[in-house]
Amino acid sequence: MNATAAATLRSNDAAGGWALLMVAARITPSGGASFYNQWGSVDGQKYGGVSASSAVALDSLTPGSTIDIEALASFPGTYTLPRASVSGSILFLR
Q1: Where exactly are the structural domains of the chain?
Q2: pTM for the complete prediction?
Q3: Contact (CB, 8 A) for 84 and 37
Q4: Contact (CB, 8 A) for 69 and 86
């Protein structure tokens, strides 16, 4: 299974400055976890984006197993967040 998280935002910092942005896609099957963090920065008074992917082989699923998918974004600077998204797909093989 693969999931991708992405965030696009505008930095409200002064021109010439910049601030960090962290995006993570997390897949949590029953009894396990997979994380991927992607740090980026956006220049002051400009738009920018960061994306992150996470993949995990789900070979121990049984009937009734659960799979949780989350997209996380952290931006400790001052930003305007116009768009965030998460996407993924599941392929079942026998």
Answers
A1: 2-75
A2: 0.70
A3: no
A4: yes
Whole-number Å distance between alpha carbons of 5 and 24? 6
Residue 35: Cβ-neighbour burial (10 angstroms; 0-12, 13-18, 19+): middle
CB-based contacts of 60: which residues, under 8 Å, 6+ apart? Answer: 29, 30, 31
72, two tokens: 């996380």
The residues near 28 (Cβ < 8 Å, ≥ 6 apart) are 34, 67, 68, 69, 70
pLDDT tens by residue, 15-62: 888 888 888 888 888 777 677 778 888 898 888 888 888 888 877 778
51-74 confidence digits (pLDDT tens): 888 888 877 778 888 888 888 888
C-beta of residue 7 within 8 angstroms of C-beta of residue 23: yes
